[in-house]
Fold this sequence. Notes:
Helix content: under 10%
Bound molecules: calcium ion
Distance between the termini: 47 Å
CATH class of the largest domain: Mainly Beta
CATH architecture of the largest domain: Sandwich
Low-confidence stretches: 82-91
Structural class: mainly beta
CATH topology of the largest domain: Jelly Rolls
Oligomer: single chain
Number of helices: 4
Strand content: 35-45%
Number of strands: 31
Amino acid sequence: MLTPDRAVCPAWEHLTPGVKVNIGVCHWGYDWHQYVYWGGDKQRTFQPGETFTIHYVMTGYTPAEGEELFLASRLHPRMEDPEPAGEHFGFLQVPSLLAYPVVEPAGTSFDKLYDVRMPYIGWQWYGDYDNDRQVGHTDRYSMRIDGPASAKGMFYHHMIDGNAKRYLCTFWLKTEGYKGPAPVAILRYPWDDKVRKDVVDTGLTGDNHWTEFSFITTMPVITPETSDASQFDLIVKGVGKVWLDDWSVRPLGDDEQPGEKRGGAATPPSAEVSPLYLVDLQCNEAAGLSLWDASGRNNHGRLHSVTWINAGNRPALHFDGTDSCAFVPMGSPELRPEDKGAYKQDSLTMEIWVCPTPGLKGGGVLCYGLALTLQLQPVGDKFQAILGCLDVAGGSLQLISQPTIAGGRWTHLATTVGADGLVRLYVDGQPVAEKALDAKLKLYAWEPTITIGAYGTPSNLFAGELTGVRLWSRVATPEEIAAEAARSPG
Ligand SMILES: [Ca+2]
């Protein structure tokens, strides 16, 4: 059993020969998906006016039988022990399968957590958040987001009023030690990025007590397909703590004109943007879940089960090799793809300091999507660096260093990719391998932009310490890389 569910256990018997029908219940919203095939696996398309008839019988369990099955069922092992920490439904994440708040349009106060789907209430909130049981707006419960991260909630319009032309969305935010771009709330149609969105820039930075925001949504009236669902996103691109509480969406009568509390105008002064670095994570925080990007481009990093250690005279990140990893979400335009195929950035340098745990497995170190993947692999009692590259022409190549990298000792790794396709790998400032790509770096639509301490999916988790993560906006010269490697870590 993949998803615990007391509500729906349907079964179908298909009665039309020669026709293949795939039918299933989508547990997101308990809607019924049906695909019809004629001959082989080719899906049938219909011409206007054409009709067809298929026969099948649908049966289900009674609620009592469903409850009995539910109580007798066990979670799939992947759901009981997800890797890395946090739960995944496809590409979505909730903090724990056994304790999540659900989207209640009438008012989500985050005081209740669920361990089963509640179709009559709503979907679960998903994203990178924690269930705070100490801090709340009018109680002690809220959603906490340590930026950079985001949380999303989807709701069917029929849960509110499918005929209403406008909704009023209200929520409360609190911030602490927050810097970088202010949290942004977005309400949009979930299945189409192209339709207009309602966007509220909260303008909050620093420390703010609970602050109310509200806005009238345009979503139900702008496209007829929005008769089914909307999605609320809270995008936290900066670094620091943000709490969300008392979120609600209610239908508005035609004559109702509530005031909106959009906050917003106070956009913080933008930091000076480095012409050289796209990402500059110096890893000096020594505590917390965030990595501040000193490049001024707001490509801040987010830690998952990573601990801070003192590496001599400076902090560093410890990855335990079982569930630690870090991400830089897709941020500045330079890091994003120019289309769904290739990264815009075709000339760059990646560098990082690594200190693998002696005798352990090494693992993924620094990945730019899956286009550039740098990892360590044990050979005898040392490690070798392996750089993998994928291009849009379907080409791939690997650069492999000699196994000279010692466990328990800091080593500087760097790689450069030029617009001409030339890829170089450096270990401790020395060039150790080079090859040429046939085309630009390849993007997969589902991959995270930059992964630290893991392979890009994420898998192959790193065991050891890492620090000083940088992406340059151009190819560094061998002299520049040697100079970086001559410094101490970071
Ligand atoms: Ca609350």
